Amino acid sequence: MEQSTQDIRELNERINQRSAFIEMLLLELNKSIVGQKYMLERLLIGLLAQGHVLLEGVPGLAKTLAIRSLSTAISGKFSRIQFTPDLLPADVVGTMIYNQQQNQFEVRKGPVFANFILADEINRAPAKVQSSLLEAMQEKQVTIGDTTYKLEEPFLVLATQNPIEQEGTYPLPEAQVDRFMLKIVVGYPQKEEERLIMRQNIHPNLQSKINAVVSPQEIIEARNLVREVYMDEKIEKYILDIVFSTRQPEEYKLNKLKPLIAYGASPRASINLAMASKAYAFIKRRGYVIPEDVRAVCMDVMRHRIGLTYEAEAENMNSEMIVNEILNAVEVP
């Protein structure tokens, strides 16, 4: 899809003006969240690219606080679901209950009917419960009884899973993990950042209240604009090369990766890498995608989409090392 230089310049100008709210939003979120710039940026990518986010990190890294703050700053409805082994699908999506006065069944909607859902420790609940949430994520709708209800936009699911304490957990199957646009690994804060966190929590007067600075409607408009961000054919080819090198590494002179990859990334990887790159360009207030945008989001889009063989595990190779090898080998336009 060719566009003239004039068109791209006008689009760039328009996106530069319309993406000004991103700085206001980040400024507001930084009132309650110290550091974690990377995580906040990825949450915004998921929000703008209509993709859901899977967060992996030890407890206490502000994962819950981040999504609650985001929903407050966007004046959206927030809902937190704590996944436990005894949770039922009806606890997530809702159910039909009998009303004795009316002498009929009525729908009681579950916590999934919100703009921002925090699925805390998603791997603690059995597959039946996980799949009830994943249907809502994929279809943006929920069926209770014989009626289907559309979910409100914007709709963002942030699921967390704990990398430690693997006893009593139900790992998400590969096909379900693939539904998440991004998988972010959250690390510990720096020493100075942790000092600030400690001070904020000890002194109540240092805690700032988060105000609503953006409306849900503005987010929906921004999502439409993100789709308009210009992506050159060379960038499209670059994205396809990255994805195809996980399926046919020998064609990209990556023969050593062939025995390490059990299966490559699905077509969802190509779609999500393109959308996430556009959203990243939008956050950086640009109307066009550059190779650095693709490289910036590549790890988060790809790390959970590559299946490793036993040989890879024996050699202590993980999917992140494989993605790095691919980024170093694939020619940058």
Structure description:
This protein is an alpha/beta fold and 333 residues long. The protein has 2 domains: 20-86 and 114-217, 3-Layer(aba) Sandwich (Rossmann fold), CATH 3.40.50.300; 230-329, Orthogonal Bundle (Helicase, Ruva Protein, domain 3). The protein has helices at 5-18, 21-29, 37-48, 63-73, 89-93, 127-139, 174-177, 191-202, 216-228, 233-247, 267-283, 291-302, 310-314, 319-329, and strands spanning 53-56, 78-82, 94-99, 104-109, 116-120, 141-144, 147-150, 156-161, 182-185, 261-263, 307-308. It has a 5-stranded parallel β-sheet. A hairpin with a 2-residue loop joins strand 6 (141-144) and strand 7. The longest helix is centred in the last third of the chain and has 17 residues, at 267-283. It is globular. The protein starts with a helix and ends with a helix.
Provide a compact summary of the structure:
The chain contains 14 helices and 11 strands. By secondary structure, it is of the alpha/beta class.
